[in-house]
Amino acid sequence: MPAPGELTFAAPRGAMPPRHLADLDPEGRREAVVALGEKPFRANQVARHYFARLADDPAQWTDVPAAARERIAAELFPELMSVVRHVSCDNDTTRKTLWRLFDGTLVESVLMRYPDRVTMCVSSQAGCGMNCPFCATGQAGLTRNLSTAEIVHQIVSGMRALRDGQLGAVESVSTGDGAPESTVGSAARLSNIVFMGMGEPLANYRRVVEATRRLTDPNPHGLGLSQRGITVSTVGLVPAMYRLADEGLKVRLAVSLHAPDDELRDTLVPVNTRWRVREVLDAAWHYAASSGRRISVEYALIKDINDQPWRADLLGRLLRNHRVHVNLIPLNPTPGSKWTASRPEDEKEFVRCLENHGVPVTVRDTRGQEIDGACGQLAAAER
């Protein structure tokens, strides 16, 4: 039976990619290599190469016999995705990648380097079925869910790029003599992953949770990243939000709210006609209590649509006295859209209203506008 959150919003039927090592848990990997006539310990050997050394080229597996390398690679390391192109901005510290999957489907990921952290935004679906009218991905519709391995491989590729010093210059904190420290071309570590790329993560519930475990399981079983550095976003698939609370994960939940009143949210986030604002927030508070993590509320500020002071006041009243932080996002307009970012003075007033209610709020640094930075824009342009 489909999981809650997958029942109504399942992806259209279509071929999923061939099985990859990252699709399997440790026991599944052992079973797979034994079926190839290999000893079970080979599973940990190749998992260590992939997850710890980021190496899926069998030529680099020098501790594995050549014949075994070829068998295992053929069975468990199919080519999942290829780079269509990279586009960069912000002095090459922001890099967006357009991927072509095995069936020709296009998805995107973004790697962003800051002085104090590196964040990667990844896709969980090809397209999106939520139909939010201001979102380029929503306008494209849903093609299919990504596999666990397709999600994981985006992060592995990003980690390779960081390891190899492929991102550009960034200024860190002062070295002590007052001069900023340059990190041009230096290696960096991935610290944050946000499931805020193409797709609704909780509509691909099982694979997103499996991918999260691959990302956070210790080597050699996974990449060994911190759960606390992972954020999973949702437009408000309430049953899946409650289910996520039972997983025992410490990831942060981000709720893409975009309006505090049901009348407007029905238009901006059509799934609201099924689960109302109060229901979505109740599920969020339940997740906060279960996980011990503060909720992020994502709110795209749209000129003359959802940026009125009275809506800020209503949002503040709904959120005050809860473990929450609001991320205000100046809208990155999509081609042909009638909507655009709020005026600076309206943005400031919105912030002031929330702060008057004691609600922590940040205006997000919007990177990548000159490289079709909003989710789905690069894929739409390619199509």
| The CATH homology group name of the largest domain | Aldolase class I
Estimated radius of gyration: 21 Å
β-strand amount:
15-25%
Overall 3D form? elongated
| CATH architectural name of the largest domain | Alpha-Beta Barrel
CATH topology of the largest domain: TIM Barrel
Low-confidence stretches: 1-8, 179-185
Strand segment tally: 14
Tally of separate domains: 2
Share in helix: 25-40%
Output the strand order for the largest sheet.
1-2-3-4-9-10-11-12-13-14
Amino-to-carboxy terminus distance: 34 Å
| The CATH C-level class name of the largest domain | Alpha Beta
Secondary structure tally, helices = 12
Classification by helices and strands: alpha/beta
Oligomer: single chain
Q: What string, H for helix and E for strand, traces the elements in order?
A: HHHEEEEEHEHEEEHEHEHHEHEHEH
Mean pLDDT: 90
Binding site for S-adenosyl-L-methionine: 199-200, 233, 256-258, 332
Main location: cytoplasm
Family: Belongs to the radical SAM superfamily. RlmN family.
GO biological process, one term: rRNA base methylation
